[in-house]
Amino acid sequence: MTSHRWSVESADRVGVRGVWTAAQARARALDLDILTIAAVLAVAALAAVLRLGALGSPAQAGEGRNVSQVFAVDSLGALLDANASPLAWLQAGGYTALTEAFVRHETALGAAREPMVLFAVITGILMWVLSRRMGLSRLTGAIAVGIVALSPMALGLQLGVRPENVAMPWALAGIALLWTPRKHRRLAPDLWATLFLVIAVITAPVTALLIVTAAWLIWRRRRKRLSLMLASLFVLGTGIGMGLAAGLAGLLIAAEGPRAQEWIATDPLLATAGLLATLLALFSYRLRPLAVGVLALVAVAVIPGGPGTAALALAVAPAALLVTGIVERATRPPRIPAVILGVVLAATAVPSWVGGLRASISNRVDPEPVADASRWLQENLLATPVVTDGITWVELVRGGRDPKAAKLVIDCPATCSAQSWLVVTPGLRLVLSRRSALAQAAATGETVAVFGTGDDRVEIHRPSIVGTTDTEEERQARAEVGAKVADSPRIAAPITVDQTLRTGRTDPRLLTTLAALSQTRPVRVTALPEVAGEDAANQPRRQALLTAAEEPADEIAQFFTSQNGVLRPESVTTTTEGVLIRYPAGTPAGLLIPFG
Asked: Which spans are transmembrane here (predicted)?
């Protein structure tokens, strides 16, 4: 009987070993996928942390209008402008309503920026998905996500409350679904991609520039009927969902914001590398479709007066993919010069990015001046309409002010600007250069209250059409009449009050009624209390605490409440310390000049 021995060359043995080797390879690939996905999620989480840390940074030009739109959807259940990117604000406002962001955050700007952080995280994850669909390595996609996470320019662009940041995930999802090496495949991914691109363009019309990339991907499959069908569906979807008026309004919103040069200055290295990589990618079959879309965005971004910020907000993520994609192709197979160049660029970028990120996180806005101004308005101009920027408008409404008693700059024509009270904030100053009538009204109006200092300074102006009391003639008249009141033997006052009377820092309505009151009885002016914010604006004191030696306080209160017209106080309050008289905000002009 012969025995059979297993040999190394046995077919069965080779089959078993082949299956085992294939299984090990699949396990290693799965482990690598899990490790890479974990790394991408960690980088996306880092991006979220950095952007959450910068929520309190100063507002960007154009953000105020968008913050008010998000708040209106969240808290008022309405759109302030139904033609101005409504789908973007429905998405952002839906998030803030579900998460109660405007309740949790101290500032309205921070609440409106929170959904932008979520969209930035989703954008980072979809960048990695798109890189894999493009045929790039796992590491290349992860590095691209890291570049966008750490770049100061990308942080500033993605943090801004802009419709483009809401549209970016939709656009990336659509492009990723269209990016396939197969000429023939199931129709469902193409239909979903078309739907996502329609949503992206309706959300932010500038996203239509990325349709160049989508069209290129469909065209190079050489399927004419498919191309015509998807193009027809896209045009029909955007036409029904947006329309011409909304598209034009969306482009006007996109034009608001810092110029492209200002953003490039925050990270010139990424801007230069992105432009160079885009040009080089035009010579790569694999990268060319994305490069064409990015080039269209860059071309629009540098047009004077064009949507620079909007185009850059859409370009920064795909540009980072092109940078890493070009580096991958330049270093495969490994080429020492290209590797050295990549290491040098990374070593140069890190110190610059660390400084830029630190500045973005540490540069914070003080919310107290706006809160103080809101309290002043509630106490002094409760029903008087005031004009301000979108962010402050939200803060006023959050503070209890009737939305009808606050107007947005965009809803205020030239005549409205000249005739309305203005709340001049850092956000309003950003738009003065583009609104000449508003700038003139702010320059000629009288400052009646000031809160905060420096860049956080908030001023309340009353319109110049009612006259101004901040003139030398008015101050001299108040000083002369105040000195006569102080010299009256029937009026007693401590030294601090005496000095306030003699230096012309007392309201003319109060001086007039004090002079009349002293003709009927002796009176003591115990104090001339300051109204918060008005001393900083050089406004005269319009409150007085009075006492009488030989009669009840009600007699003094009755004297003031019996006054009529401009001399009638806003409030007369009897306290244990005396009678507190308070006149309305906005000292009338010319009341004392005939008697000076």
From this structure: 34-54, 112-130, 142-161, 191-219, 226-251, 263-283, 290-316, 336-354
Number of domains comprising the chain: 3
- Asked if 398 and 539 sit in the same domain, the reply is no
Residue count (the chain): 596
Q: Half-sphere exposure of residue 396, counting CA atoms within 13 Å on the CB side?
A: 31
Nearest to 108 by CA among 392, 371, 378: 392
DSSP characters over 192-243: HHHHHHHHHHHH-GGGGGGHHHHHHHHHTTT-HHHHHHHHHHHHHHHHHHTH
Q: Please name the amino acid found at residue 286.
A: R
483 and 450 in a common domain = no
Pairing label, strands 491-492, 523-527: parallel
Whether 592 is in a domain gets the answer no
Six token digits for residue 298? 């860059």
**Residue 381 carries which side chain, given as an amino acid letter?**
L
Question: Radius of gyration (Cα) for the chain, nearest Å?
Answer: 33
Distance (Å, rounded) from C-alpha 206 to C-alpha 79?
Answer: 21
Q: Answer yes or no: do 337 and 355 share one domain.
A: yes
> Do 406 and 539 lie in a common domain?
no
How does pLDDT run along the chain (596 residues), one tens digit per residue?
Answer: 455 554 545 555 556 666 667 666 666 666 677 787 888 888 889 889 999 988 988 888 888 889 999 999 988 888 887 667 788 999 999 999 999 999 999 899 999 999 999 999 999 999 999 999 998 988 888 889 999 999 999 999 999 999 999 999 999 999 999 998 776 678 888 899 999 999 999 998 899 999 999 999 988 887 778 778 887 787 777 777 666 555 555 556 665 667 778 888 888 888 888 999 999 999 999 999 999 999 999 998 888 777 878 889 999 999 999 999 998 887 776 655 655 666 666 677 777 788 888 878 888 888 899 989 999 999 888 888 898 988 999 999 988 888 888 888 887 777 777 788 899 998 888 888 778 888 888 888 888 999 988 888 999 998 876 666 667 888 888 888 889 888 888 888 899 999 999 988 998 999 989 888 888 888 889 999 999 998 888 889 999 998 876 667 788 888 888 888 888 999 898 888 889 999 988 888 777 765 44
Domain holding 341, by residue range, is 39-362
458 and 539 inside one domain: no
